[in-house]
Amino acid sequence: MSGNMDWKSQLEAQLFALQDPAYRDFNRSLLPGLRAELIGVRIPQLRALAKTFAKSPDCEVFLHSLPHRYHEENHLHSFLIAGIKDPERLLEELERFLPYVENWSVCDSLTPRLF
Questions:
Q1: Is the CB of residue 63 less than 8 Å from the CB of residue 77?
Q2: Which residues, including other chains, have CB under 8 Å from residue 4's CB and lie 6 or more apart?
Q3: Measured over all CA atoms, what is the biggest interatomic distance in the chain, rounded to whole angstroms?
Q4: Confidence of residue 1 (pLDDT cuts 50, 70, 90)
């Protein structure tokens, strides 16, 4: 991610480019009480974004920028953590992120490969 926008603005732009308003509305009904804002990005698209974003130097900054504004950023965060191969680092990132997991959807997406 480079260019005139900062990494956060670029990431948000990518998420909104993948937005599906009908999917957002459907998810809203499944996640009552959700504090984070919903964009409406489907899980396969978030997984694909995580694969490319994991290679970005901005990924590390993102992992340390909690809490996230959008529900989809929490999913992205969980997919990035799932790809960590070093056990110690994985546990550190899990400890940092778990207090921000506020619903079953993000919890279900947090499936580290090491486990």
A1: yes
A2: none
A3: 40
A4: low
